[in-house]
């Protein structure tokens, strides 16, 4: 049986930390920024650890 190919698009969107956690950019910072308060846009900057429910599916796409 051939090897599973990793999903290159997912590899560009998430990073795996040294302990194996999945980190990604928060959603909601792409458009309609004039309507959103500054406090909200500041809160959305940076990366967050993804939910435990998503980790299994994402690791499968990454080939881990």
TrEMBL record:
One of its GO terms (cellular component) is cytosolic large ribosomal subunit. InterPro entries: Ribosomal_bL35, Ribosomal_bL35-like, Ribosomal_bL35_sf. Pfam families: Ribosomal_L35p. It comes from the Bacteria. Keywords: Ribonucleoprotein, Ribosomal protein. One of its GO terms (biological process) is translation. GO terms for molecular function: structural constituent of ribosome. Belongs to the bacterial ribosomal protein bL35 family. PANTHER family: 54S RIBOSOMAL PROTEIN BL35M, LARGE RIBOSOMAL SUBUNIT PROTEIN BL35M. This is Large ribosomal subunit protein bL35. The gene is rpmI.
């Amino acid at each position: 049986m051939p090897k599973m190919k990793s999903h290159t698009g997912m590899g560009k969107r998430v990073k795996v930390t040294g302990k194996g956690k999945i980190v990604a950019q928060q959603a909601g910072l792409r458009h309609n920024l004039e309507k959103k308060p500054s406090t909200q846009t500041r809160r959305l900057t940076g990366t967050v650890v993804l939910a435990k429910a998503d980790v299994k599916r994402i690791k499968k796409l990454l080939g881990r």
